Amino acid sequence: MANEVVGTHIMIESMVYHKIMHWVNKSSYEVSGLGKITYKDGRITVIDAILLPQKNGSAHTDIEGADVGKAMFLLKDTPGDLRWWWHSHVNMDVFWSGTDRDTIDKITQGGWFVSTVFNKRHEMRSALSMVSPLPLGFIDNIPTQQIQYLDPEAVKKWDDDYEKNVTNLMRTYTWGKSESRYPSESGRSSSDFRSGEGGQLPLLPHHPSRTVEDDGPGIEDRIPPMTPEEIQEYLEERRTIGAPKAGPPMRNGHSGGW
Fold it and tell me: Which of 2, 99, 216, 247 has the most beta carbons within 10 angstroms of its beta carbon?
């Protein structure tokens, strides 16, 4: 939905808006109708729109008073009040012509009415006219928006389609002989690490009972703990690798240099 509007404003339900725009775009002449509204805390909500028998020209639309009375009678048991007049200006700007103002004056004689004019550019302009219960007269440029509405049944069908058709697979990666179901940050598959292609296996022995999933991320997950025997073996290997090679005896009985 658009940003919340403060003060008196008009909200047109999405299906109502699209129905009206269908009629507006279908006609090369002006077209008009009535609609039902609800009102609460400054918000006027258009909940339905209807077409009446009419004779339209390029710059006017005529509806007989008897047809308006018939519509009021037919819709008297449906929610809302029949106090919204809508019409189109085809490709012209949205404004109030002299004919429009005459029509508004006539339909407002019973108290108050809301009016909105549309065009094929999806522009709209609204006004409120009231002579009773308060003599407010004609109030132009009332903020008007379309309600962005999602049908819960449609959303449920989208969810059902997703559950029926989509299976999410969790990628794994390997440290030594263990696998984790955490996604690989590098994007490489677990087979890359198992085979040593494109990944680096741990330099330290792997404890068979330890997996990456046992704890949260950290250095402990990259270097699993070792048994005392494994630690001793590792230290012996490091001493052998780092020890200087024995050389011939040097002067004064010392070895390894001067």
Answer: 99
- Nearest 5°: the CA angle 229, 230, 233 is 85
Please name the residue ranges forming H helices in 75-223: 98-107, 152-165, 190-195, 219-222
3-state helix, strand, coil in the chain (%, to 5): 30, 25, 45
Please give the model's pTM, rounded to 2 decimal places. Answer: 0.56
Q: Report the DSSP pairing between strands 137-140 and 144-146.
A: unpaired
Q: Hey, where are the domains in the chain?
A: 9-146, 173-238
Nearest partner of 60 among 12, 109, 27, judged by Cα: 27
High-pLDDT (> 70) share of the chain, %: 62
DSSP string covering 147-158: -----HHHHHHH
Q: What's the topology of domain 9-146?
A: Cytidine Deaminase; domain 2 (3.40.140)
